[in-house]
Amino acid sequence: MTATTAGRLFAVDWGDKRIGLAISDELGMLASPAGVIARRAGKRPPIAELMRQAEERGATGYVFGLPLDPSGSETDRTREVREVAAKLAARQPLPVRLVDERFTTSSALRSIREQGGSTRGRKADVDAMAACVLLESVLRATSQGVELGEPVVAAVESGRN
């Protein structure tokens, strides 16, 4: 996923209850919300479902939001996202990048309100929009020749996920 890579990027905004998704157009200019995947407490991460949805949309790479705290430090959620991204990288050939996602949810909320919408009862929309905000920042940087984030190295899996 460099400035010269063409194709659709699939963005993932990892949450406790929902995973927000977004997809870019093939030219890497536009990002669109692509729904959410519901998570169940105590269950394995839905890596196979992420792969299915990315393949269904013709993705050529993944962008995971890296949930750092406001000061930029890592948290338990950050470590969880790093682990899931590494497992995903091990299970399929597409590149996976981690990109700082601080303030994407607040940007998504602001964007919905600015468009005259209410965020009440629309948590899934907000999660998908947060993934879209993340993806837009990656696309904007890429169009300027800047590569955001860090590539993910595939994890060596000892069991199935």
Key attributes of the depicted protein:
globular; single chain; 161 residues; alpha/beta; 4 helices; 6-stranded mixed β-sheet; Nucleotidyltransferase, domain 5
Radius of gyration: 15 Å
Order of helices and strands: EEEHEHEHHE
Q: How many separate helices?
A: 4
Classified by CATH, the class is Alpha Beta
Uncertain spans:
none
Tell me, briefly, the overall form.
globular
Under CATH, the homologous superfamily reads: YqgF/RNase H-like domain
Largest sheet: 6 strands, mixed
Distance between the termini: 25 Å
Strand order across the biggest sheet? 3-2-1-4-5-6
Number of domains: 1
Structural class call reads alpha/beta
Indicate the percent of residues in helices. 25-40%
From the 3D coordinates, which CATH architecture would you assign? Answer: 2-Layer Sandwich
Percentage beta strand: 15-25%
**Average pLDDT number:** 86
CATH fold description: Nucleotidyltransferase, domain 5
Task: Give the total of beta strands.
Answer: 6
Sum this structure up briefly.
The chain is of the alpha/beta class and 161 residues long.
Overview of the molecule:
By secondary structure, this protein is of the alpha/beta class. It has one domain (8-151): YqgF/RNase H-like domain (Nucleotidyltransferase, domain 5, 2-Layer Sandwich), CATH 3.30.420.140. The chain has four helices and six strands; from the N terminus they run E-E-E-H-E-H-E-H-H-E. Helix 2 links the parallel strand 4 and strand 5 (96-100). It is globular, with a radius of gyration of 15 Å. The two termini are 25 Å apart. 36% of the residues are buried.
